[in-house]
Predict the structure.
Amino acid sequence: MHITSREKAIIELIIKTAGKHTALSVASSLNVSARTVQRDLKAVEKILKQFALGLTRNNDQGLIIEGKNEQIFRLIQHLASSDPIDQTSQEKKLRLLLAVLDEELFKIQSLAGHLGVSSATLAIYLNELAEWLDGFQLQLTRKRGVGVELSGTEANKRRALAHFFLQYFQEELIEKLFFLEKGTLSEEKILHYFVPDYLFEVNFLVNAAFAGTPARLADSGYLEMVVHICIAVQRAESGFLMEKDISLPERGMETEYELMLKISKELELKFNAVFSAGDLLYLALLLRGTKLRGAEAVPYDSIVLAQKIKNVIKSVSAQLHVDLTRDFSLFQGLLAHMEPSLFRMKQNMESFNPLKEEIKQKYPVLFIAVKNSVEEEFSEIEHFSDDEIAFIVLHFGSALVMQEENLAIKALVICPTGIGTSKMLASRIKREVAEIDSIDTKSIKDITGQLDSAAYDIIISTVRLPFLNAEYILVNPLLSEENISTIKSFLQNNIESFTKGRQYQRAAQKAPPAAENKAALRDLLGDLKKTQQSIESIIGNFRFYRMDKQKSQEEILEKMLERAAEERLLENPADVLNSLKEREQKGGLGIPETNIALFHARNEHVQELIFQVVHLPDPCLVKGMDGKEMVMKNLLLMLAPMELSRREQEIISLISTSIIETDEAILVFSSANEETIYNKLESVLAAYLQSNFQIHP
């Protein structure tokens, strides 16, 4: 029977304290995360069964070993005489992977000795690792009398190594990075591979590169880039260079390439590292696939993608008999997620979701519905992996759970695995714990500065937070029954402190219900006012033009902008025109399978929302959003200020997607009939008002 030193320590703690230690307090005592302890407890239960003992919890979630005293004594004797192994099977497989990645030919006996396992155990590890590596187009072969050899491209080897770390050691990496930043880590190598100085510097540079920019990374994407860059540095230093045949797949990756070039130059100065052109292009591709802007920064011009996402939402709603088509938060979240995700899939870049299996088990029907919908709508993608489907399911899971919210205490959820996960966790907490009223979600990076913990009644985290000087509850991202019970116990045990504060406020305010109603009414009126102003701008600034023949596209835009300037809708029309040209250079503006092109830009000189239409007497060629040349007969102009409120973003997105929402809509916007287009615009905006401001008696 094998037992690790941590499993041994957990059993000894439980025996000594008899019900006083919870999984959370055990984690604190051993300086590991609660999730690590939860994993170890499963192994502990198997060990206890061999001694006819069981692991139970008391009313306070304290851990107890139950069974006959003589069996407990036998267990204590065994622990005293056992020699624990400190490495798990996954850790040994990691060391095996690192060994074969060095491209040396190791003989079986040599590898077995290196890992401290028998030849039979090594054979099992090699079979499991070979099967896993096959998904990265890598072949692990054993040649009699020669040794074990790994063959495949350098790009796939780096990708496989990064995924192994992220799949099996994600939490450990987060903890190691934290201790590195605090200067309290003294390991020679982190997880048998990473040089601490390299990991520290790469983490700092990636964080600095995205600070204060609209483009940002989800926490999982952030960690992925840190791991990939550090692997690139160390592989290049060891003489494993990227293949020269990697090339930019398309225009529009200049930003990612420049950013990686900047980071690489800093690393070259610091460590004398050398990055090849292949290294930079590989990392730029990865960055393009992991970059995630906030939902509020999603470009409103992704019309084709937006329409496909609307169709997916409509299809999932029909399959589940639940209407999610009016959930703008779901639409925005999916739009932010799908753009980099589709890029990754088109480049055959593997996505990784650590919660995939749990999501499939917990939401099997939703998983099938989402899979059916995305495969039908995005038929140009050869294969949607289960990892990618699981990411999308998180967004739908969040939206579905949020429909059941109706709660009373303020909570903070800290979750490092991405937007969809934190939203779903928050929504599940609201559904399962009826007392909680509002929930804020933050990432680890958000709270490394100052956090006003007094502003929250309860703090819930999916990872251990050794730097947080406040009480918090560690949970699984999918919120197990045990987690729910722990949260409810915490609220029940602290209910007096919650009600005491609220009673004091009621006494001081004398009439809180009226005050709350007034605040809610003020918020509603403010929201209504912003919406009204946005709609009035669109309706009031709508213009329909028929241009003279032989006018060029640029001349038409110049004329429209000059008229808008005369009406004081914008200033500096020349600068606005440059913004339109820059946007056109980034990608096509023609809407495929129509004769419509949408010219649009956000510019600091634009004062109000503007939507105008021009019918061209002579058709002209423009580049479509699919990259192909197409004929334009109708030019749509949409302009917006640089800074947009949430309602302005929603309305602009609504109008742009309504252009191709149905065949009827396409006919209307290409009809060259001013009244028909105006009426369509009015009906779209009226429907928006009705769906967003319904007041029930």
Summary: The first helix runs from residue 5 to 17.
